[in-house]
Amino acid sequence: MLTLRVEWLSDRGGRAYNEDACGHWRSDGALCAVLADGAGGHGGGDVASRLTVREVVGRFAAAPSRSAAELGSLLRDVNATLLDQQWPGTPQADMHTTVVCLVLDFAAQRAHWAHAGDSRLYWFRGGRVFCRTRDHSLVQSMVDAGMLAPDQVTQHPQRSELRSALGLPQDELELEAADGAGAVDAGDVFLLCTDGLWEYVDDATLERLLAAADGPRAWLDALAAEVKHSARHKAQHDNFTALAVWAD
After folding, report:
1. Which residues on neighbouring strands pair with residue 154, listed in sequence order?
2. Which of 100, 129, 153, 174 lies most in the core, judged by the most C-beta atoms within 10 Å?
3. From CA 12, how far away is CA 24, in angstroms rounded?
């Protein structure tokens, strides 16, 4: 059976307030980790992200998902709750949030996940990126169409323009869910993070800092230092949040 170490960090960066949220829940049989990056202005984005994390954790604890399809259905139920809270004439009227959620089944040693937007899940094996989620964003669409090279994404002026996020009508919401290929092995590492982190830390740097870290706390601290160094020229750089899961 897997044993796990979980650590997280959330920093408001150069912004006046933090619209990110994250959390996790575990039982004897499973771990659910979730991260969200809100949008819609103060009183909107932060409400959306925190509401999403609370709803995901609460719904999973009540009825744990056993597959990606079930987790995707859970996120659509959370979206319905978010839509119900978009009250006209209030700061929450146009609130939205990205979301990425990871579930680990301890006994089966399997993973599944679901996401909407550009908050990412990375799965590392042998210290290398084994797989990661694909962003629901304008620039990812441009990469898919051959109009933009992958290494140009973080420099594109429209890199923050999303194609999907919670808070959209159900028939417009693009949500991706996947079951992991194969079992989770001892030594595997998972990272959930917002674009405020991955914009400044490429895959090679993620791997380099992972190799140098003796645990998830040290790795996250190194990632935070890298973001702050790389974003030092941007006085109002974005919030950044990350949650790391190490399988021992």
Report:
1. none
2. 100
3. 20
pTM value > 0.90 = yes
Sign of the CA dihedral with 184 first, then 188, 194, and 198 last? negative
- Domain range for 233: 8-247
CA distances from 18 to 47, 194, 246 (A): 11, 12, 26
**pLDDT tens track for 29-43:** 999 999 999 987 666
CA distance 185 to 205: 23
Nearest partner of 48 among 73, 20, 76, 71, judged by Cα: 20
Identify whether the C-beta of residue 38 lies closer than 8 Å to the C-beta of residue 19: yes
CATH of the domain at 240: 3.60.40.10
**pLDDT tens-digit readout, 205-224:** 999 999 999 999 999 999 99
CB-based contacts of 87, cutoff 8 Å, min separation 6: 93
